[in-house]
Amino acid sequence: MGQKINPLGFRLGTTQSHHSLWFAQPKNYSEGLQEDQKIRDFIKNYVQKNMRISSGGEGIARIEIQKRIDLIQVIIFMGFPKLLIENRPRGIEELQMNLQKEFHYVNRKLNIAITRIAKPYGNPNIIAEFIAGQLKNRVSFRKAMKKAIELTEQADTKGIQVQIAGRIDGKEIARVEWIREGRVPLQTIRAKIDYCSYTVRTIYGVLGIKIWIFIETLIVFPFYPLMQQKGGNLFILFLSNQKFLILLILNSLNSIGLNKNLIDLLI
Questions:
Q1: Residue 132: pLDDT above 70?
Q2: pLDDT tens, 30-56?
Q3: Where in the chain is the domain with CATH 3.30.300.20?
Q4: How many angstroms separate the Cα of 67 from the Cα of each of 2, 20, 189?
Q5: Local confidence band at 265 (pLDDT 50, 70, 90 cut-offs)
Q6: What per-residue string of b and e applies to 207-217 under the rule 16 or more CB within 10 Å gives b?
Q7: Are 179 and 162 in contact (CB under 8 A)?
Q8: CA 37 from chain center: how many Å?
Q9: CA-to-CA distance for 171 and 162, rounded, in angstroms?
Q10: Does domain 121-217 fall into CATH 3.40.50.11540?
Q11: How far apart are the C-alpha atoms of 211 and 202, rounded to whole Å?
């Protein structure tokens, strides 16, 4: 089933986190979800209209929404935010005002922040937009996929799989073409895999683009027996691709010897 299920939802709680952070009553939950989707669609439409398009690879990686009773915080993660800010210096303020008018936020404050992601071409949404731009310009689909793989390799990823489905190159019969470079372990839950499903409209019809990017593997250490004996919490903090920090906070104060053993294990 690892081949069929959405890789992001399959890994929630391990290597993936939610993009919407809020709580609501069960009867109001569906309204909150619809509101989040409308906010994301509104922001994407605004960016598409006002961004200075150059190579077709500058887009939105993800939009995180955090809600409180009196505040809605929207964080837009972009690959190349300068292209939007340089074109419209007051674009963020204008977007914020338009959102407040559209959704009638009177008693709730709305904040919008733009964050640049470190490696844009390691994000599947930006890669999918790049391929879509190439297909709209009638570039060969194989050439577009190979170029996308080259860009992804520059972001130090461990593997990528690209799939295009539909009337490719205007053929009468729809088909599926895919290419893979490196490893993409879809059935390994501790493998951090980013995924994107994107549609592009061409003169021949609609094409579906799917991107899987294998970033890294979550390393699990057998420290749980120690936690059960002494009591405490285990935290794994990832610092970079291969560097991580493990913190074991114990409830017992007389645990100096155990901490020393942990340090020896980490070395």
A1: yes
A2: 999 999 999 999 998 888 887 655 444
A3: 16-117
A4: 32, 8, 29
A5: very low
A6: bebbbbbbbbb
A7: yes
A8: 16
A9: 20
A10: no
A11: 19
How many CB atoms lie under 10 A from the CB of residue 29? 12
- Would you state the structure tokens that stand for residue 227, as one six-digit string? 């936690």
Show the tokens assigned to 260.
């020393």
**Could you count the other beta carbons within 10 Å of the beta carbon of residue 219?**
11
SS3 221: coil
Tokens encoding 15: 């290597």
Positions of CATH 3.30.1140.32 in the chain = 121-217
State the DSSP H helix or E strand holding residue 202, giving kind and residue range, or none if neither.
strand 191-202
Of the CA atoms within 13 Å of residue 101, those in its CB half-sphere come to: 6
Count CB neighbours of 170 within 10 A: 10
Q: What is the DSSP letter of 219?
A: -
Instruction: State whether CATH 3.90.180.10 applies to domain 16-117.
Output: no
Q: Identify any residues that bridge with 210 across adjacent strands, giving them in sequence order.
A: 163, 197
Higher pLDDT, 218 or 110: 110
DSSP string, 100-136: HHHHT-SSSEEEEEEEE-S-GGGSHHHHHHHHHHHHH
β-strand pairing of 191-202 with 205-217: antiparallel
